[in-house]
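stage 2 :: seqdesign
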């Protein structure tokens, strides 16, 4: 029995390695996932976060239906086949080769509170909550002070939402920010403070004192940007002129139950 479990695990890992390398989901990919026992939530999530090339003809859909595809999966396949474009959600920038490059979310390494000695003659001083990113420079380097970003969203449908609620942590594993949000207004752009000695970058994400407290980025620190809708779920975002330094987009919308908003989309202006 243990040997069987090892074989199944090996097959699943190999399958996902192939999907990651190809980055294109087809009808055959969906059938393979079903044969390997993946549930609807995982299949739907993979479709939302990958490039796709589906056959939505009657014959193609019939083959999927015969293989056991649910109505939710079939509906999503038909929707994606109409777009005939890359469907991977996220934030993109134009790299040195003139190609769109996806900004992978960076994870905060921790928070810091400057609650030292807190007593002064006038009372308690303010305490600042700081979120930190490792290293002093982002891997996403942009060589212009007027960069353009492309935000691609794909908000979950009611059916998918219901599916996620029933499947719990199995669903919405990747890029959930762009399934929950629907436009760039739910993000804030900030400049990160570089700490050379500590080899990190940080941003203030909250303040508190003995009489009040607040969470989130101070609106005074937010950098403005223009938004242009390209398609229903795709937007061009152009910040005001940025001086050399470290920056990040932070999601400021409602965080789904069971999620932690500990990631940011960072970049460096050279």
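stage 2 :: out
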């Amino acid at each position: 029995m243990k040997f069987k479990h090892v074989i199944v695990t090996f097959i699943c890992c190999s399958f996902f390695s192939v999907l990651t390398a190809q980055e294109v989901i087809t009808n055959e990919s969906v059938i393979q996932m079903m044969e390997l026992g993946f549930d609807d939530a995982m299949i739907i999530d993979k479709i939302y976060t990958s490039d796709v090339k589906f056959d939505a003809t009657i014959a193609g859909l019939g083959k999927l239906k015969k293989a056991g595809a649910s109505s939710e999966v079939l509906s999503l396949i038909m929707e994606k086949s109409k777009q005939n474009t890359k469907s991977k959600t996220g934030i993109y920038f134009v790299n040195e080769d003139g190609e769109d490059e996806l900004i992978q979310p960076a994870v905060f390494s921790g928070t810091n509170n400057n609650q030292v000695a807190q007593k002064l003659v006038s009372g308690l001083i303010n305490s600042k909550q700081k979120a930190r990113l490792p290293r002093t420079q982002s891997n996403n380097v942009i060589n212009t002070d007027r960069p353009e970003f492309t935000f691609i969203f794909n908000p979950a449908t009611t059916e998918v939402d219901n599916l996620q609620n029933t499947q719990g942590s199995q669903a919405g594993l990747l890029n959930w920010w762009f399934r929950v949000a629907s436009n760039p207004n739910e993000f804030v752009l900030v400049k990160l403070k570089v700490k050379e000695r500590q080899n990190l970058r940080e941003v203030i994400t909250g303040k508190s004192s003995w009489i009040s407290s607040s969470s989130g980025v101070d609106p005074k620190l937010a950098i403005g940007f223009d938004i242009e809708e390209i398609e229903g779920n795709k937007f061009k975002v152009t910040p005001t002129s940025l001086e050399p330094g470290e920056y990040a987009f932070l999601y400021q919308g409602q965080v789904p139950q069971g999620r932690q908003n500990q990631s940011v989309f960072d970049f460096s202006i050279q």
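stage 3 :: structure notes
- The helical segments are 2-22, 27-35, 40-48, 58-67, 71-83, 158-167, 177-180.
- Confidence is low (pLDDT under 50) at residues 6-11, 13-21, 115-124, 157-172.
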